[in-house]
Amino acid sequence: MTLAAIERVETLRVRWQEGDPPGRRSAIVRISAGGHVGYGEASPMLGGEHSLGIVDRDLAPELIGRDVHDTGILYDRLLHKCIKLGPEGAATGALAAVDLALWDLRGKLLGLPVYKLLGGAWRTEIPFYSSIGNNFGRSVDETLRVVEARLKDEKPAAIKIRLDGDRTTQDFDIAGDMAKARAVRKLVGDGFPLGFDANNLYSAGGAIRMGRVLEDLDYLWFEEPVQHYDIHGMGEVARKLDITVSAGEQSYTIQAVLDLIRAGVRMLQPDIVKMGGITGLMKCAALCQAHGVELVPHQTQPTLAHMANLHVLSTIMHLTKPAEYADPTGRMDIAFETPLRPRNGHFALRDAPGLGLEVKAAELERRLI
Ligand code: CA
Fold first, then answer.
1. How far, in Å, is the centroid of ligand 1 from the Cα of 224?
2. Ligand 1: distance of its center to the CA of 264 in Å?
3. How far apart are CA 293 and CA 285, in angstroms?
4. How many helices (H) and strands (E) does the chain have?
5. pLDDT per position as a tens digit, 262-314
6. Three-state DSSP class for 100?
7. H runs (alpha helix) in 41-155
8. Which string of DSSP letters, residue by residue, matches 305-326?
């Protein structure tokens, strides 16, 4: 039985401002059926070009005529069609973009918000944490100035300091990193929830030294202490430290997420635009619930993916940490009727059909590459 046959699949490569590097662009997929359109996006790593190429060449022909509502079947059919293209990275990003567009479209066809289709929301107001990057190259004072501004502007429920250094260096300046962690704790005061993201910059030994300091400073979590592909090392650090060690933003399948859980990582951070969209992240949620580990998704895109992430988070019973909020610039707001903005430390889900974001198609078309 086909309820709504997919009629059209389009890929949109969007440059928001002149001179945007590839990582600041958007890789959008638009799917049409029954007089409605749904929007999704892939991770914009390297512009998302590779994912959109896979959508155009390999996924779109498979999708035409299929039922919009068969999201589970389509996810696995397309994943296994592309299994030798990865399956990690560009291929799962392509699947994510398609999946998000299908869920948005399903909601619009049925007149329901996505969270209702997922089984209902435990909460429709989701607290967020300010995710503050690029601190590797900053002095202690510069780091403090940026943290102070975000704290004042956004009033977040928590703050995460990211190093974002060059992954070809290791244990580059642990003493300097400790000084930044100490200064930020002093700035925000005792009891304010803090996370520290190493972005894979430490050896296992260096990570354990750093982790002990973060424990003393009462940080809540220590993110990606070692290289993401060193599953054993990640697990070793997680098991040796008391602080919660998190990882998983560079895991692209449920099996890769399970590998981290088995290694001993107790907080998982898969990203909705990297590892299979809403369908993929809901599977991760079940996996994490079954193993008693925290699911705190990685999420850097400020519009479609952010909203999709919030829908999934609303359905999680044990939501232990706020949602990531990485890009407060509003640089993409022009393409949405009612852009998503934080209020009182929260983002609110909407009851509008689908993801709840109305796209101004003409503004997107104007910015196509
Ligand atoms: Ca991270």
1. 7
2. 18
3. 9
4. 13, 12
5. 999 999 999 999 998 999 999 999 999 999 999 999 999 999 999 999 999 99
6. helix
7. 49-54, 60-63, 71-81, 90-110, 114-117, 140-154
8. HHHHHHHHHHT-SS--SPEEE-
